[in-house]
Amino acid sequence: MPRDLWRLEREVLTLKRPLVTSDIHVLHKYTSRVRVLNHEEFPIPFVRVHASIYQTLLLSSNNCLLPRLEELQWAPKSGTDTFHFVRLFLSPRLKVLDLTFDPKCPEHLGLLDIIPMTFSPHISELRVQNLRPGVAGFTPSALPAWTHLTSLYMEDATLDDLVYIVRLPALERLTYDNLSSLWTPQTPGTKTQLLGSLHAVEQPLSALKVLTMSVDVPIEEVTKLLKLFRGTKLARLSATFQHLVDGPDTVNGLSEFIKTVACNCHTDSLKNFKLVYPGVCDAVFSTVFRPLLKFHALEDVVIYGPFSCKLTDEKAAEIVSSWPNIRSLRLPFRNLGCSLLSLSALLAFAKCTELRYLSLIVNASDKAVRQVLRKDTDEARTCNYSLKTLSVGWSPISHKEFVASFLSDVFPNLEDIHSKVVVKRGNERDHQRWQYIGQILLPMFSRIRENKRVGRSRGR
């Protein structure tokens, strides 16, 4: 815009004079080039556009102000009167839409009903944020118009929303963030009717590939949700629980959740699984987590939580045989009161030829295991050239030179070792030893190995 058209006062942009024909010509010349627009006023905008500018543009523009816009993020500050001007930027070519609503203005939700029918029929990615808890974002009239939607992100969702979402024919990615109103119907007394509608859907979310949830409800409610997605060929499932539950029911709830995953997901499609659960419990691996071993296509597994789970060397070998294509494996079990994995268990993981990242707790201070490994010949060991990072948490360790030599032989390309100090365990010395291995000893063994290779190539 010409410099004499606008002014900036206290970080608020306003107009100095009315628009003239020449201004509109210049405006249209440049607006046709815009493909991405990010309008975000939270938490602190550098410049806030006064509502009068949007009003002027709305009156001077016959249709969309940015006719070739493909991606729009619209997040006006709560309490302002600029949200409804988003229609200025809803172009027919829009493919990605990110809307942040004002919880104090639920009437704005009606925009979701008319966007695909009136403004932008080809939106494939939709993000809906800052909804008021317990208020549905979708209505029955909106559903038929969102047929092109392949990715949906929602902050919370009600039972009413689920009834419509599970019928979206092309939806491949579904993300719930801070899910807390899961089984809350918008209209009192309709929960039974809505649940009946959900279970009546023959192929719910038939195209779904990725399901990501961050929830603030008990694990039992999420288990009910997974049962609604029966038969979906998920490639990625991520569940992060924020609800803290301690006690005997924690194990039962966790076990039922894992069983539901195993019963409702295709074993040949799931490649990424993540579970973050803060509830303290004594989980037996064979009864709680073993159902996951049927997913032989898994490549990335993260199970994080303060679990007291006995993971033996035999169970480690079973994991390796069940997940031959594993690339990243994180099992930071607490093992309180349980025997730890021995250092020799790493030999089983060396058979995973695609493994890049491994995180678990091992006992690298067992004298008997060291004696057995010393008798083992280099020829009998399986070498893994793919592992780059080993995370050992608070693992106990002694004889760091031997451990470093063992790791260098089994994982020749290992570059990083991550460990941490746990004050209650007083493992500062263990942490220092692991860091010394990663920063000093492993690079030293790598140089020695490289010098030998160069010497052999020169015939020395």
SSE diagram, text form:
Elements: E1 6-9, E2 12-15, H1 21-31, E3 36-40, E4 48-49, H2 51-60, E5 71-75, E6 96-100, H3 111-119, E7 125-129, E8 151-155, H4 159-165, E9 173-179, H5 191-200, E10 210-215, H6 219-228, E11 236-241, H7 248-264, E12 272-276, H8 285-288, E13 300-304, H9 313-322, E14 328-331, E15 341-342, H10 346-349, E16 357-360, E17 362-363, H11 367-375, E18 389-393, H12 400-410, E19 416-419, H13 428-457
Parallel strand pairs: 2-4, 3-5, 5-6, 6-7, 7-8, 8-9, 9-10, 10-11, 11-12, 12-13, 13-14, 14-16, 15-17, 16-18, 18-19
Antiparallel strand pairs: 1-2
Helix pairs in contact: 4-5, 6-7, 12-13
Notable characteristics:
alpha/beta, 460 residues, 13 helices, 18% strand, three-stranded mixed beta sheet, 19 strands, 31% helix
Provide a descriptive summary of the structure in words.
InterPro entries: LRR_dom_sf. It comes from Macrolepiota fuliginosa MF-IS2. This is F-box domain-containing protein. By secondary structure, the protein is of the alpha/beta class. It is 31% helix and 18% strand. It is built from 13 helices and 19 strands. Helix 4 (159-165) packs parallel to helix 5 and helix 6 packs parallel to helix 7 (248-264). The protein starts with 5 loop residues before the first strand and ends with a helix. The mean pLDDT is 82.
